[in-house]
Amino acid sequence: LKYAVHVNGVTQLMMMKGDVLSGFETIKVCTAYKYQGKEIDHLPYNIDPENIQPIFTEIKGWAADLTGMTEASQIPENLNTYIDFLETNLEVPIKIVSVGPDRTQTIRR
Description:
The chain is α+β, with helices and mostly antiparallel strands. The protein has a single domain (2-108), classed as Adenylosuccinate Synthetase, Chain A, domain 3. The chain is built from 2 helices and 6 strands.
């Protein structure tokens, strides 16, 4: 995703499926790869699957039901931490968070 943001000049993102992530104890985010003994921050084009290993950062999950939330102030602290982590690592703001299957179940930040 970081590569796609960079290559395409993305200036903001929308996070879908925030409600689907509820209930996990931790959320794993792949932030780098160990490839041929070195740590790299991109996926190589000519992958040798036996010599690449994802490196994950774990973020504490949340248990709240997001589907009834309508304002950014209602977002659980751990979800905000996850969003902040993504924004920092992707270097673009996440302006909208989807909190349910209906198109009206979105929160603008």
